[in-house]
């Protein structure tokens, strides 16, 4: 990846999103934290850093911070002079407030596009795993999708299917319940929740039968 101009905001954020999309979570976390030193008002960077923190805790456990590269310290000058007005007369330069607002809009738009592409890629990978019967791997891909979008019902009904195949009936029921809170007439969610209930009833009956022998 091409070297960045030190503490250049937009290229740094693009690199952070690229690292996140390629699941290089430690590098992405460092870049997002550096971005926030330059401009703490960028909500997309803050949200991403929080999301990656959860991923790193799951991945590395309580000592996840010890495995991070050092976070660069951004000089005060880089924090205070994020925009170079060149030779424009001072009265023609946009105000700092206007620049920050426009910058925030651009960053959020760029982040949304990157997140959407990552969501589609993960969903397609999950669908491919379902086709080959690799339900655990598929469920993991759908779980990654949910970190990016909790309102997309398809990934919940798809993960519910995976859980049914894995005999994880409580988890399947929970996913279907979530969908029905958003779309109360979702046929797949109703059907798969019914299968989850049936699986739970069979398991309960089998457990009762086993206990009779003790």
From TrEMBL:
PROSITE patterns: TPR. TPR repeats lie at residues 119-152. One of its GO terms (cellular component) is cytosol. It is found in: Cytoplasm. Gene3D superfamilies: Tetratricopeptide repeat domain. Signal peptide: none annotated. Keywords: Cytoplasm, Repeat, TPR repeat. SUPFAM superfamilies: TPR-like. This is Mitochondrial import receptor subunit TOM34. It comes from Cyanistes caeruleus.
């Amino acid at each position: 990846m091409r070297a960045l101009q030190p503490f250049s905001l937009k290229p740094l954020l693009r690199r952070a999103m690229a690292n996140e999309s390629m699941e290089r979570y430690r590098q992405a976390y460092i870049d997002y934290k550096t971005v926030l030193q330059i401009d703490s008002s960028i909500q997309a960077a803050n949200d991403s850093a929080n999301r990656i923190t959860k991923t790193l805790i799951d991945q590395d456990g309580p000592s996840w911070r010890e495995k991070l590269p050092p976070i660069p310290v951004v000089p005060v000058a880089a924090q205070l002079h994020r925009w170079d007005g060149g030779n424009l007369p001072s009265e023609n330069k946009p105000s700092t407030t206007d620049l920050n607002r426009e910058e925030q809009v651009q960053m959020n738009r760029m982040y949304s596009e990157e997140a959407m592409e990552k969501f589609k890629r993960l969903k397609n990978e999950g669908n491919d795993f379902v086709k080959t019967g690799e339900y655990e791997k598929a469920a993991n891909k759908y779980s990654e999708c949910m970190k990016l979008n909790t309102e997309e019902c398809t990934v919940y009904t798809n993960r519910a299917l995976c859980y049914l195949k894995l005999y994880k009936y409580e988890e399947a029921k929970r996913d279907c319940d979530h969908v029905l809170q958003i779309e109360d007439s979702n046929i797949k969610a109703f059907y798969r929740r019914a299968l989850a209930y049936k699986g739970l009833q069979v398991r309960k009956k089998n457990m009762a039968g086993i206990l009779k022998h003790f």
